[in-house]
């Protein structure tokens, strides 16, 4: 049994190229996906939904074109769900800026950024495809250029073909 502090919050933890993904389920639906640093150990799925989510997350890591089909717990405000729906329409290998999405939704870039930061289902709702007008922007409510979450964002964008592949993802400090 994995007794690592924090792992009890998750119904499964799967290894990821950048660390791990924590999976939380509730009432047979996905409740949350969480980017976890590398020190988290894998945890076997505790229920059928966690098993399904774990399998699909791993498939995405193998194939950036994989499309998630998971029962999602209802989350977010009406505005957040509008932002998330718009983000889901961004094709793999492409990005949009906070400003582009804000203009489309007749809103403001900061509000779009806040909705991205409130995303309960990263990967499924690919907020990593949203960038600032002049660079990478923040990610998962962080804008620490050398922090863990922006390292994750760089890996995801490279995995999907939206960042150059000739620079190791660990060393990419800005969005070209």
UniProtKB/TrEMBL annotation:
Q: Write down the superkingdom of origin.
A: Bacteria
CDD domains, sorted? ATase
Q: Which UniProt keywords apply?
A: DNA damage
Domain Methylated-DNA-[protein]-cysteine S-methyltransferase DNA binding, which positions? 78-162
- UniProt KW Phosphoprotein keyword: no
Q: Which Gene3D superfamilies match?
A: Winged helix-like DNA-binding domain superfamily/Winged helix DNA-binding domain
Pfam families this protein is in? Answer: DNA_binding_1 (PF01035)
The record's PANTHER family line, in alphabetical order, gives: METHYLATED-DNA--PROTEIN-CYSTEINE METHYLTRANSFERASE (PTHR10815:SF13)
Q: What is this protein called?
A: Methylated-DNA--[protein]-cysteine S-methyltransferase
The species this protein was found in: Massilia norwichensis
Taxonomic lineage of the native organism: Bacteria, Pseudomonadati, Pseudomonadota, Betaproteobacteria, Burkholderiales
